[in-house]
């Protein structure tokens, strides 16, 4: 028996029959995540710095210039994940991290504060984005959590829960940055 090495996404076509590109789905999720966060960050009047090397388990940094109680600016590092898997449960998104990712995100001795964000997308690529006369709709939603100071683990991985109430929105991002700017945790 010959196993197919072809990606099942390779044969996707639009309703008019035009083929999608051949970029690997991992890269598509990465790029869609960036677009999603860019939209939220821009609407929050903040800046996004894309890091070229992910050796700290950080994908990008959000920067805000604003007058907070302690600082005149706030910065948060973000580790972003994207999935079409059904990981949203009643209490939140259940996401498995390798121990090295978990340790990097829980480290309380870093200068910048860190959060983990997980973007949930529909299982069908064609449903990720919709264009209408009223505007563009990016589907679905992202959730966030801060693991800073969490207990170490002895296992190879750790499943963390990103609470349902922590939807990554403009309001939530601004609240995260305000808490950091006021000298607190995200």
Describe this structure in words.
- With about 190 residues, this protein is an alpha+beta fold.
- The chain contains three helices and nine strands; from the N terminus they run αββββαβββββα.
- The protein has helices spanning about 25-45, 100-105, 170-180, and strands spanning about 45-50, 60-65, 75-85, 90-100, 115-120, 130, 135-140, 140-145, 155-165.
- The protein has a five-stranded mixed β-sheet with strand order 1-2-3-5-8. It has a two-stranded antiparallel sheet with strand order 4-9. Strands 6-7 form a two-stranded antiparallel ribbon.
- β2 and β3 (about 75-85) form a beta hairpin.
Layout: helices, strands, pairs:
Blueprint: H1 25-43, E1 47-50, E2 60-65, E3 73-83, E4 92-98, H2 99-106, E5 113-120, E6 129-132, E7 135-138, E8 141-145, E9 157-163, H3 170-181
Parallel strand pairs: 3-5
Antiparallel strand pairs: 1-2, 2-3, 4-9, 5-8, 6-7
């Amino acid at each position: 028996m010959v196993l197919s090495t072809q990606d099942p996404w390779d044969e996707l076509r639009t309703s008019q029959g035009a083929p999608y590109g051949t970029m690997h789905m991992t890269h598509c999720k990465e790029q869609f995540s960036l677009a999603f966060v860019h939209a939220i960050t821009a609407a929050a009047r903040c800046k996004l710095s894309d890091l070229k090397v992910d050796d700290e388990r950080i994908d990008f940094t959000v920067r805000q210039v604003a007058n907070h109680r302690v600082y005149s600016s706030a910065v948060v590092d973000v580790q972003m994940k994207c999935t079409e898997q059904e990981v949203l449960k009643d209490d939140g998104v259940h996401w498995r991290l390798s121990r090295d990712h978990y340790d990097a995100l829980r480290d309380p001795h870093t200068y910048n504060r860190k959060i983990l964000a997980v973007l949930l997308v529909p299982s069908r690529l064609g449903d990720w984005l919709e264009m209408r006369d009223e505007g563009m709709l990016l589907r679905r939603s992202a959730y966030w959590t801060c693991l800073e100071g969490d207990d170490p683990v002895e296992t190879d991985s750790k499943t963390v829960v990103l609470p349902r109430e922590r939807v990554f929105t403009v309001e939530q991002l601004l609240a995260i940055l305000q808490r950091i700017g006021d000298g607190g945790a995200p």
